[in-house]
Structures are given as C-alpha cells and as structure tokens.
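REQUEST ID: PR-0412
SUBMITTED BY: lab tech R.K.
PRIORITY: routine
TASK: structure prediction, single protein chain
INPUT:
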Amino acid sequence: MGARDVEKDYYAALGVPKDASAGDIKKAYRKLARELHPDTNSGGESRFKEVSEAYDVLSDPEKRKEYDETRALFGAGGGRRAGSYAGGGVPGFDLGDLFGRAGAAGQAGGFGDVLGGLFGGARGGSGRGPRRGSDVEADVTLSFLDALRGVTLPLQLTTTGPCGVCGGSGAAPGTAPAVCATCSGAGVTSRSQGGFAFSEPCKSCRGTGRLIESPCPGCRGEGRAAATRTLNVRIPAGVSDGQKVRLAHRGEPGERGGPAGDLLVNVHVSPHPYFGRRDNHLTVTVPVTFAEAALGGQISVPTLDGPVTLKIPPGTTNGRTFRVRGRGVPGKGATGDLLATVEVAVPQKLSNEARKALEAFAAAAPEDPRAHLASP
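STATUS: complete
OUTPUT:
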C-alpha cells in the first residue's frame, strides 16, 4: 500500500465509522454508487471513482487491515517511535545506515524503504511499479433451469481504467508529468530530528515522485476514469442460489502493466414452480389418487429431460419418497438424483357413484387406523 493511499480517508469517502461492519460498508457503497454512477450523474465521475477505490480496500479484510495499520503508523508518528527504539536514543544515529540506505541520487532509501516493504508499496513509496487491478463484484439473477444447465449472458460493468484521453499518464495530451524537484522522483523525503534521520512521503507530489503541471481534462490528472463495458460471462452448470463465481482477470484493469483484478459474480436463482433442490439432488412432489396409492401402479414424473414412468407399490403411504437415479443436478462430478415425493390427493367433490363406492369400501374395510392412539 503506497503512501498516497495512506493519506486518503476511505472511511470518510464512504461516510462510515472506522469500526463499521462489512455489511455497513457494502450498504454504504451501493447507495453511493447508485447516486454517483456516471450514467445517472454526469458530474459524479471523480467522486464515483473515489468511492469505488475506498470500497475496494475496505471490503477486503486483508487490504483493510493493512490500510488501518499503515494509517495508524503514519498518523501517530510511528516512524519516530520506531526510530527512537532502534537507535536507542544515541545522537547522530541514522536509521538509513541500519537498513542499507541507498546513496545514489534520485534513489529512495532509509526507513521509508522498510515501511514500503512491510506494507506492499513500491520502493521509496512512489508506487510506480505494476499494480494489480481491483476485484469487481456484480449480481445476476438466473432462472432455476439456467442455473442448473449453465448459461452465457452479457454483463454490463462500470469500472475505472486507464484514461482514454491521456493514456493513463494524467497529463494533458501533448504534455508529460515532470519529476518532482522536492524528492527527485523518489516519492519520499528525509528529515533530521534529534540526531535521527527519517523518511516520509513527499508532500509536494504526495508520494508519486512526479508533478502534473497540465492535468488531463478527461481525468483531472488522476490517470484513470470510469468506463462502462459489456462482458459475455459464462455461468457454469449447477450453480446454487447465493453462490459466488470468480472469473479471473475479468475485473478492473491493472496499472502500469499490472494484471487485471477478478470479477466476482453473486448468483441469485429464481424458484421453480414445482422443482426444488437439495445439494445436487432435485426434488419434486407428485400428486397421486387414493386408488393409485392403495392399489399401486405406474405414474408419470417430470424430469429436466422430459417425463419418466415411476412404478409405485400397493399400499404406498402419503409422503413416501422415491429416488430416480441420474436425473438430478448436472455438474462436474456425478449427476445427482431426482427425489419424487408422492402426495395423496383428496377429491374436494364426489359424484353420487363415487360416494357410494367409497361408502362400500369403508364398510368392506372397517379397520381403525387410529387404534394405536387409544388411551391407556
């Protein structure tokens, strides 16, 4: 994490407290993203990018921890404490000597090198090396059958990437960034205090090592701008509701030759009128008549590939489940089964003939199914 990132207050950008939960951070980001989206707010591109950058850091537990620790160290004078401890209070002791400070002009060194290594920044804190793009999240809603069979669908994403006007340099066309005269392009400056030498982010260039005298009108000197693109995304067969599909290198483009981030697709599945799902098995409830349940027979059961015939034995009780093998959820492993549960359908209206037939049946089979419930 570069010094420039440390100076930004990502919590303030999202309007949440420093102890905000992951859910509160996500809720705040979604609200601001809707309000500032370039498609609906032409003047909110810069703020949209700021909010997206803040969410990228605070939504990732590792990045958030690193950010909090780095801000605490810089904001509370951590460098001074570390210097006093390492030097033992001996006047004239330079931490740069202890940590192999480079002496060449224009090269970073001193304690800033150590901090840069600890927190993942480029040497000297300038952050000018390759940087991986941020991960991007998107939500899709699929039909029950599309989720089972897999589907390719277009997905529109708004992400930040290299500015198309300046090519990512941040400088107006026809101009180029200048090397910062204060830090000679190192991104850090050294100062002495009480016999100690300390390195800190350059205040003139904010740790970038360069100054832009003529900012690009397209990105206001940031070098990155919001852009909308459409991707054809393949959702694999067998995904379930709430599952997150990770597509490598389909997220936000990287900086300075770094790899692109990943695209995280949150899948939501609409319910089916009669099919359900239990792990990699499909479930279905099949109504049967009283005669079919009592006498047994063959019934038609729906599957993903068309109906199949299921034989039920005489005396089948209500709620009994039958297994149709290989007719469940397809996937990379073995295909699941179809679990068909029979439900005895009780007629709401009876004809005179049907009523007489049932009365005759009741008289011919006078057994009491509740006999075992008699009081002791």
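NOTES: The chain has two domains: 3-269, 275-366.
REVIEWED BY: pending
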